[in-house]
Amino acid sequence: MSLATNAPSLPFEPLLPRPAVVQSIRTEAYGISTFSLAFTEPEMAAAYRFKPGQFNMLHIPGCGEVAISIASDPAKPDVLEHTIRYAGSVTRAIGRLKVGDVIGLRGPYGSSWPLEQCTGKDLLIVTGGIGMAPLRPVILSVMQHREQYGRVLLLYGGRTPQDLLYTEEFERWQQGGIEVHVSVDRADESWKGQVGVIPMNFYRIRLEAKKTAVLTCGPEIMMRFVIYEAMARRIPKELIFVSMERNMKCAVGFCGHCQYGGTFTCKQGPIYNFKAIEPFFGKEEF
Amino acid sequence: MATYAAPRIAASIVLAKTALQQVIDNLRAQQFKVLGPVRADSAIVLDEIEHISQLPIGWTAQQRPGGYRLVQTGGGEYFGSALGPHSWKQFLHPPRVDVLVSRKTENGWSFEPAADEPQLQAFLGVRACDLQAIQLLDRVFLDSYTDPHYAKRRQRLFIIAVNCNSPAATCFCQSMHAGPKAETDYDLAITELPDTFLVHIGSEAGSEILHGVPWQPATAFDLGRATQMMQRAQSQFQKAVQTDNLPHILFEHLEDSRWDEIGMRCLSCGNCTMVCPTCFCNTMEDHITLDGQTGTRTRIWDSCFVMDFSHMHAGNSRPTTRSRYRQWLTHKFASWKDQFGSLGCVGCGRCTTWCPVGIDITDEVRALRGLEAK
To answer: pTM of the full predicted structure?
Structure first.
């Protein structure tokens, strides 16, 4: 017999992780490491593709699940790098993993940085702290198609020199045609570079407002000032893109935790065009 | 004379009230667990029904903001009581459901979906507002990604709607365009007349389940009485929400002091989210056996009023009651529209009745709308 209800079909299991093995662990900074993960099932490894800015859900059985952006090159989807700061119970459990350990991985989820839309434009990438991780795939992609973009600038800041990620790659990025400007909030005697909060770096560069797209990821307070500085230079809101962070439990819009206004950060985000979220951005406790 | 052939879809027929027992029997014979209103714990709640005598015949509930009291009507209505604290979401989106089992293997871990074979369920006495709430949950759990746990329950569902003759004092479904009459997506819809049930056949399954049940075609007189009952119900609403342009108005007033004022009254207890038929938010709980070999993920209901709900590494994005109430109300009446194409409230009034401090959501919306006029 047929019921009046619209019989929904039953496709894949949206909450089901697949096993992935830790291939390598690289310490990036104090309390921050990059975990290279690879699916153990060949068919998963073959089918998996991601775009810069998307994230995976990493699951430790008996402990929990955490949303982590993919930090590696989208052209090499067979090994997925996740740069993780040990902050909560799940990330600390990940911190105890060893090479060869298996965890659960599902993804990719969420929106991506609009690289197609940005071709022909200058790119201004502004990141703070671990906010560098979701933009590393952008840099790695852009270097492979460098001719498709105008100038590409990276303004990257950390609290101290010891907090900076991927420092050994900066030279390669420079050689790949990325103008890398690094600064720290607080320097020590070893630091020979710039000191100051990230938005201050805007005063060290010249931008062509009409053809510059801004991609930013970092603490919300930092992004607020980045947007302020970008708009002061008449960069249109349509060309400002931000990566938002909210608590996430499911990554598929079921759990409600990551709501941000009329969007789910897991579906319409984490990468938003600033104009789309302007009414909510920076609203206290929203 | 009684006819026994199955009635056509879209037909209206008349049943003796006691014939409802045969409908229940037929459903049970087809392995449906029949769920409906019963009187328990000084309230009308939803539970398994085997016999019509379990229905709260002759009972109703007086409701007001922060108040609920059962009273006898002196009549013999089967469905004279409006809504209780339970909604049907508990049977479609269970408060606890295992979603994942992890097993330790030689090579690490294997992951598989937790076994979930829900039984056939028949909802008896679904009001129009709750019917619309189910349609809203369909958007959440079936539209972009499909939640297998919800989908399986939804596929195995038989719905007997009841057109609401007796809206409570906290009801406002009419203003949310969600009632009091059940319009679509049911298998059978009952209008309770003084001495009989007028039944509208909504689906093939609805027709088939009446096999062997004595019925008569509805007469113009029956249909006229049903229309009268509906009109009478429509005139009884005491509360309303004015919905035009509401998302825009709420988003324009996110920083108004009215939110501070509500935040002072709200206890952040989350009762409203538990009784709400559309609140779907949930979280995950992880367990592991003592030998460390088998892990289980369980999805449990969560509430945006819970402090941890918005916790991130850098702290909580909604640390105050003010911000959590604002999240709840703007979700129902503003952001739901962007997320799922309609407002997320069906006007059942449960949040108002079951709020321990009697916050009336229609009052709050009216006050927030009033800001627009200033």
So the answer is: 0.94
